[in-house]
Design a protein that fits this description.
It contains 12 helices and no strands. It is an all-alpha fold and about 250 residues long. The chain has a domain at about 65-240. Mean pLDDT is about 80; it is low at about 5-10 and about 230-235.
Length: about 250
């Protein structure tokens, strides 16, 4: 009874061990498979990021990455600050020269002689057809019929306007609108027949208009314009236009 009973009691031990070993092996294989799947998914995501990093278009906003960096990136706010301050100084200096500087006798104290001479030269160049002066007949007519007779107050308006544009740009006050006013002044000078620094000023002003949200972030725009960058109580239409966002497009896997 002793040996037979021990053998009979030991028979079920072997299948139990095999069962436990099979369960452990299945658990380990499942853990390994899950680990491989996670590693494969991370590799795929890293590959997708590497591919999208070299594309010109941002898949989330459908905008060019360069424009997103210029117009939305916080790092470029200091770049726009430099552009604003330099351009604003140029405008302030131009207005200062017309009121207190070397050009005061032609603009502020000269009865608008500088404006009258500038407009008359544009009209004469347009009539002569020598390639100088006003290039369009309708603009030459505007200069002759309106600007020349009203040169007195137009000279003062231009002098004050240039200073105000420069101060607003330096302070970052309504940056987009201020750059648009400066752009109109440069267009007026170019239409009359003067190039000079106007093309360069116009390029910078167009960029400031496009980047008005980011360009005025380091300035009074951050205080005066609220979180959605809309003027206070400006209306629902302005709020809808400025706060409108593009739908997020999921990248094609």
């Amino acid at each position: 009874m002793g040996p037979d009973s021990n053998m009979q009691g030991a028979e079920p031990v072997a299948p139990l061990r095999h069962q436990r070993f099979g369960e452990a092996a299945s658990r380990s294989s499942s853990v390994v498979s899950r680990w491989r799947q996670r590693r494969r998914s991370r590799t795929d995501e890293a590959g997708d990021r590497a591919v999208t990093a070299w594309t010109l278009v941002d898949t989330r906003t459908q905008n060019l990455r360069l424009t997103n960096w210029l117009y939305r990136s916080p790092e470029t706010r200091f770049l726009w600050l430099i552009v604003r301050v330099w351009l604003g100084y140029q405008w302030v200096n131009a207005g200062y020269q017309k009121i207190w500087g070397s050009e005061r006798a032609l603009f502020w104290f000269g009865g608008g002689a500088g404006v009258k001479g500038f407009a008359s030269a544009g009209v004469a160049g347009s009539a002569a057809g020598a390639g100088s002066g006003a290039s369009y007949g309708w603009w030459a007519a505007f200069l002759h019929n309106f600007v020349v007779p009203n040169a007195f107050w137009i000279a003062k308006l231009i002098s004050i306007g240039e200073i105000l544009v420069g101060v607003a740009l330096i302070l970052g006050l309504f940056t987009g609108a201020t750059a648009f006013v400066g752009l109109l002044l440069n267009l007026t000078y170019m239409f009359t027949g003067s190039a000079g620094v106007n093309p360069m000023f116009m390029i910078l002003e167009i960029l400031l208009i496009l980047a008005w949200r980011n360009a005025g972030a380091i300035g009074l725009d951050k205080i005066i314009l609220r979180e959605r960058w809309t003027p206070y109580r400006a209306g629902r239409l302005v709020a809808r236009i400025t706060s409108r966002r593009r739908p997020v497009v999921a990248p094609v896997g």
